[in-house]
Each structure stands twice: as C-alpha cells, then as structure tokens.
Design goal:
By secondary structure, the protein is an alpha/beta fold. The protein has 14 helices and 22 strands. α1 runs parallel beside α4 (186-198) and α7 packs across α9 (303-321).
Length: 442
C-alpha cells in the first residue's frame, strides 16, 4: 500500500510556523510511530472508510511546522526504496497574483560575485572554452572551464575538437579516451585562466576531486575567482586505502577562494558538504544528456527530488550555522527551458547548463556534446552525443525563440514563469506552488 505520512516538527523560526492544524494521513493507526521528531496524537474518533484507515492527527502544540515525509515503496522483503521524481514529473502552479515579465529580476549572487542571470556554463569541452566563458561572462552568466580538459592538455585543441565532433558514434568513446590520455599541463592552466581574466569577467575553473591537490596551487596562483570541485559523486568523507584523500573541510578553510563542490543528490550528503564551508553545492551528477551512470554503475538521481532535498538541507544548515547561506546549483538534466525553470522553482539558486549551451553556434563541440565521464580510461560513464545547433549563445539565453521546443530564450521563459506566479526575484520564486504529475511528458 502506498501512503503519505505527515509529521510535525517544532521550529524556532516564526516564518515557518503554522497554527495547530488537523492533518489527514492515509495510514492505519498501528503503522503510526511517535519519535522525538513527531509531536502528534491520534484522536479518538478513528473511523474506517471504504479504503485504508483515515486517521486524524492533531498537532499538539501551536506554532509547529508541518512537514511531509517521503513515501517508501517495498522493493522486496527487507528492502525499500524512496519514491523520487524527475523534472518531467512536476510542474509549476500559477498563483492568484501575476505581474509583468519586465518587472522581475533574474539576478543571483555567490559570495562577492553578482550575475545578471542564474546560468552557469558547465565545465565540459563541448560547452566551455576560454572564448565561450568570456562570452557568457559578458552576457551576465558564468562560464566554468574544465581545467582537466583539452584546453589544458593541448596548446591548440581545435583540430581535436573538430575530430571528436566528426567521429562515428561507435568510435567516439575509444578515440576520446586516446585524446584525453595526454597529460594536463600546469602552464596551460595558467594561460587559459589568464585569457579569461584579461577579458574582465569572473574567472571560474573546475577540477575533479582526484586532481585537486595536484593542481589547486596553480589554479589559485593564476587568479581564479571561483574554484569548482566537480565529480560524479563527491562526499565530505572519502575513505581510501591508497593515497591520502582530499580533506574538503581543511582544504576549503585554508583556501582564500570561494569553492563550489558537488555533486550531491540527497539531503545528508548535501548537508555534510555545506558543513565543509563550501560557498555552493552542485546537485546531481552533471552531464544529464551524456551521462550513462545508471547503465554503467547503477547510480541515478531523480533531479526534482534531489534539488528539493538539497534545498531543505540548505534551510536546516542555515539554522544550524546561525544564518550562513549556501548556494544550491542544479547540475545536469536541464535539456529545455521548462526544466531549467522548474529547477529554480524547486529551490536551486542557479543552474549549470550543458546540452542547451552545447547547441549554440559558438560552442566548441560544433553540435555534439560530451562530458568528463566519457574520457575515463577504464570505465567511461558517459558518451558523445549529437545535440545539433539552434542559434547563437545570446539567442539560447535571451531569444528570440522561433520554435516552441524550449531550446532557446531560457531567460525569457524564466521571466514569464516568475511573472505567472507573481514573484519578483529568483529567491522568492522558490516558494511557488508545484504539482506532481508523473510521466506526463513521456
């Protein structure tokens, strides 16, 4: 039987409290358990209807916050799984108040750095080159360069980018492995970051957790503004029997540069990453359009649930830390403007885009797209795919659109959704109503 439990949690914040309220939960009384988080009691007037028991639960103290717990489904004897939702499974609900799209603000800020739009170009060679990072910066977005990509392995990677774009699908992964076997050169890291800085935009670069200790001093000395540590799965507590693992908390504390770290896909992992002192946490595994983590290692994160979970971890971490706010950045699986908008509505402060920006005519992948997962030498967890081109980067971000496919005018779509729900900025837009409608887009 599928059911939903409602629990009541005391909250010190008056902004999140409600009066004592009757709550209906479809749950037989013998399945209701009280623990230190639950402040509720079962009323005496239990009744049995044509379906499951209807149990009326009364919050016993005024001023308690109501929170809905997640559904768990029995996979088999002794094993349950949580029900998670993809972005296609949810939708935004307009409110009673609307406003003009011209009156909303799409700006966001991380640490001391302000941006006009909540868009981050993913650190993927098919998306972000020094030139496209500069272009994104001048348009009010942020481009993150992959500091283990072709731009730091080769003096001129253009011929290799052209080659990858032209490869048959069945040969692409093996050839990508060969091309990326060339070592990363510290002097090229410095050169590429200097190119971006010289253009006067915010400088951001990404390393994997495995390479961070090796190259971080080069990156910092080159004048990076935002340091991104990005992997398929990044934890605050990595255990290794080999080399000394990266101590994220100590690393971030000692580094005089804001750090964005991820990916995290659940509440607990995100909360621990926030406790390291990170300025931002990436949600998801990145490379949604080119990721094969589910097929290769059985790992997947339904993005709607993951974003909402991490946003909740941010709220609890704010209470725990005395008000420190950590930016939540959705990473991967935002193939169209509708998904982009829903990610922000679910609680993300910004979105890291891959495939949508790879469709720009300026993108280095020339209509193809791949991520760092595809270059692993023994177990590639991604592939190169064809995404096509739809127009210049400016059109992808700001329009105009000439097709109703969600591939261009991402910011126009965001402004329209914010206007339809009556919210004036992205932070308040996170409060909008949402509905679950599973599989409607499939």
């Amino acid at each position: 039987m599928s059911f939903q439990i409602t629990r009541v949690i005391s909250s010190p914040s008056s902004s999140t409290t409600v009066p004592s309220t009757l709550i209906l939960a479809m749950l037989p009384p013998d399945r209701w358990c009280e623990d230190d988080l639950v402040i509720a009691h079962v009323c005496n007037d239990l009744k049995q209807s044509s379906g499951p028991w209807e149990t009326t639960l009364l919050a016993s103290h005024p001023g308690n916050r109501l929170e809905t717990m997640s559904q768990e489904i029995e996979i088999g004897l002794g094993k349950k799984g949580r029900l998670g939702y993809a972005l296609d499974d949810v939708a935004i609900v307009p409110s009673r108040r609307t406003r003009d799209p011209e009156d909303v603000s799409t700006s966001w800020q991380i640490d001391a750095y302000e941006f006009d739009v909540p868009v981050i170009g993913a650190p993927m060679d098919s998306v972000t080159s020094p030139a496209t990072a500069i272009a994104m910066g001048k348009m009010g977005a942020l481009g993150v360069l992959d500091l283990e990509g072709l731009w730091t392995r080769y003096e001129d990677p253009t011929p290799l980018l052209d080659e990858i774009a032209g490869l048959p699908a069945d040969q692409a992964t093996e050839r990508i492995q060969q091309i990326y076997a060339e070592p990363v050169k510290p002097e090229l890291i410095t050169q590429r970051l200097h190119e971006i800085r010289a253009a006067g935009v915010t400088v951001a670069g990404a390393l994997s957790p495995q390479r961070t200790q090796q190259f971080y001093s080069t990156v910092v000395d080159a004048g990076v503004d935002l340091f991104v540590i990005r992997g398929t799965v990044v934890s605050a507590e990595h255990v290794s029997s080999g080399q000394e693992p990266l101590n994220l908390k100590k690393f971030i504390y000692d580094l005089d540069v804001p750090v964005i770290v991820g990916g995290a896909s659940n509440y607990t992992a995100a909360l621990h990453l926030m406790r390291t002192g990170a300025a931002g946490v990436l949600v998801g595994f990145g490379g949604g359009a080119v990721s094969a983590t589910r097929q290769t290692i059985g790992v997947q994160a339904p993005m709607a649930t993951a974003i909402a979970d991490v946003a909740e971890a941010r709220r609890d971490y704010m209470d725990e830390s005395g008000g420190r706010y950590v930016q939540v950045i959705a990473d991967g699986g935002m193939g169209d403007s509708g998904s982009f908008v829903k990610a922000l509505a679910l609680g993300a402060d910004a979105v890291m885009l891959g495939a949508p920006l790879a469709r720009a005519t300026e993108a280095p992948g020339k209509g193809t797209h791949w991520g760092s997962e595809a270059r692993h030498q023994t177990l590639p967890r991604g592939y190169r795919t064809t995404v096509g081109t739809v127009g210049p980067l400016e059109q992808v971000l700001f329009g105009p659109s000439h097709q109703a496919d969600g591939k261009t005018n991402f910011i126009g779509a965001l402004k329209r959704a914010m206007a339809s729900t009556g919210y004036v900025d992205v932070k308040n837009f996170q409060r909008c109503g949402m509905v679950v409608n599973p599989y409607s887009a499939r």
